[in-house]
Amino acid sequence: MGIRFAVKVRNGATGLTVAVGLALCVVGCSSGGGDDNKAEASASATAGEQSDPTAQEGTDSPLAELKGEDGLLLTIDSAERDAGGFVTVSGEIKNDGAEAARVPIQTRGDETEIMRHGGSLGGATLVDPAKKKRYYVLRDTDGRPLTTTDMPRIKPGASIPVFMQFPAPPTDTGKVTFQLPTFASAPIEISG
After folding, report:
1. Which of 20, 17, 5 has the alpha carbon at shortest distance from 28?
2. For the region Disordered, what residue ranges are annotated (predicted)?
3. Suppose 64 and one of 68, 111, 185, 186 were both cysteines; which one would form an S-S bond, judging by CB atoms 3.0 to 4.6 Å apart?
């Protein structure tokens, strides 16, 4: 074994890789291929642990489509309640216009803290009409909104993915109204 190893090293890194690979095969193969079975069992367990898709997840239809200025269209694909106490709203902004367009600066809102950090979707809110409560976009410790920021100019027909995070309404609140400056409002359903 020592002589073969020395010869392999002289032949370069490929030989060393082959020698290590063979050594691993001998160790793994002598156990009757148990590692492969463990990998399959692990994959099966992971697949089994996934939750059943909700009506929202099982369809390709968006939760809402909101028209904005200059041919921009905001499509909301999901509003997921997370265990950490927040709701993440995800989707995309598409340019349905004939010319390149930017997401209007008004979408960042008019709060001084958020405005200092440039373009964002920080002006978005979720409104619970039943409890008469409004939820604003979350911010980090520096005051930056937890949303998509610094969005590029969008070419005609192109789209960009977007997200916004909000504090989670109580668990008995399932429907809220999504609002974003310069875009139409729309009711959406929170899942999770």
Report:
1. 20
2. 36-63
3. 186
Domains and CATH numbers, the chain: 64-189 (2.60.40)
Q: Alpha helices of 73-143 — where are they, by DSSP H?
A: 112-115
Taking the chain (192 residues) in runs of 10, the rounded mean pLDDT of each run is: 41 38 38 40 36 48 95 97 94 96 94 88 96 95 94 96 97 95 97 88
Distances (CA, A) of 187 to 92, 93, 130, 154, 159: 17, 17, 12, 26, 22
Q: How far apart are CA 101 and CA 92, in angstroms?
A: 14
What amino acid occupies position 146?
A: L
Check the CA dihedral 43-44-47-51 and report its sign: negative
Q: What's the number of CA atoms in the CB half-sphere (13 Å) around residue 111?
A: 17
